[in-house]
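## retry 2 of 3
previous attempt timed out at serialization; input unchanged, resubmitting
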Amino acid sequence: MTTVSSPIVEIVAGELSLFLDDRELHRRLAPHMGWDRFRATLLQCEREDFPRVNSLWRGRYWPAVKAWLDRENRLSNAAITGTQDGLRTSMPRAVTPLASRSAATA
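## retry succeeded, writing output
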């Protein structure tokens, strides 16, 4: 078993732990923020139903954190996969580089 810096975050059989401490969340979500600002942001988000620390597991459940972030940023499963109810409804449209679009309209 290989471990990383936090005792809560362990890599077991190639999979990350499901319960993350706040230091690991900081590393994953906003390493550019200072620790104190990140903690204040977590407290503010908790008032908006951000997943709380589970006292039994001593961490936040990562899938719930990710789901909260997706909802907060208005990202649905259909938007991620381009599917609805597991079926692809349309092919994703090709993204044309901005330079190509402005040259085509000129």
